[in-house]
């Protein structure tokens, strides 16, 4: 994932919670259309920061969590992960939380990707339900 509108990694860090400066407020205004590039094993995806920010508890939605994957030389985030799965992971953010496994990705691989990107239990439950797994009810 590359931060297209930022000149360097420090500008994205300035927008982190707890950084109060006029630059941070300008950054928030600019974030509406600021784009990031995500490199998944050599395949680049581009999206807006606001798309990722809809899910702040996830790996991509939390600037602090995703920062460890930032490559300042290429100005992008790099993940050595399953490429076919990422179409569906990015769609999760773009669709407001819909999760669908690509037909060419095995169930176990896709569930690993859901865990890696920290989409949460609700996303995992939706995925398992769509795949036909029977939901276990808690017993008293």
Notes on the structure:
It is a single chain. The protein is an alpha+beta fold and 140 residues long. The protein has one domain: Potassium Channel Kv1.1, Chain A (2-Layer Sandwich). 41% of the residues lie in helices and 13% in strands. It has 7 helices and 4 strands; from the N terminus they run H-H-E-E-H-H-E-E-H-H-H. It has helices spanning 9-14, 22-30, 49-53, 63-67, 83-94, 107-116, 121-130; strands spanning 35-40, 43-48, 70-71, 76-79. A 4-stranded mixed beta sheet has the order 2-1-4-3. A hairpin with a 2-residue loop joins strand 1 and strand 2. The termini are far apart. Residues 1-22 have low confidence and may be disordered. It is a multi-pass membrane protein.
């Amino acid at each position: 994932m590359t931060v297209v509108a930022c000149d360097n990694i420090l500008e994205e860090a300035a927008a982190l919670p707890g950084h109060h400066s006029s630059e941070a407020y300008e950054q928030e205004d600019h974030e509406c259309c600021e784009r990031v590039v995500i490199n998944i094993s050599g395949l680049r995806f581009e999206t807006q920061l606001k798309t990722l920010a809809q899910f702040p508890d996830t790996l991509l939605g939390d600037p602090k969590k995703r920062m460890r994957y930032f490559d300042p030389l290429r100005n992008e985030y790099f993940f050595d992960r399953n490429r076919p799965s990422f179409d569906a992971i990015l769609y999760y953010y773009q669709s407001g939380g819909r999760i669908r496994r690509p037909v060419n990705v095995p169930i176990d691989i896709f569930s690993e990707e859901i865990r890696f990107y920290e989409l949460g239990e609700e996303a995992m439950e939706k995925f398992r339900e769509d795949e036909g797994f029977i939901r276990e009810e808690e017993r008293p």
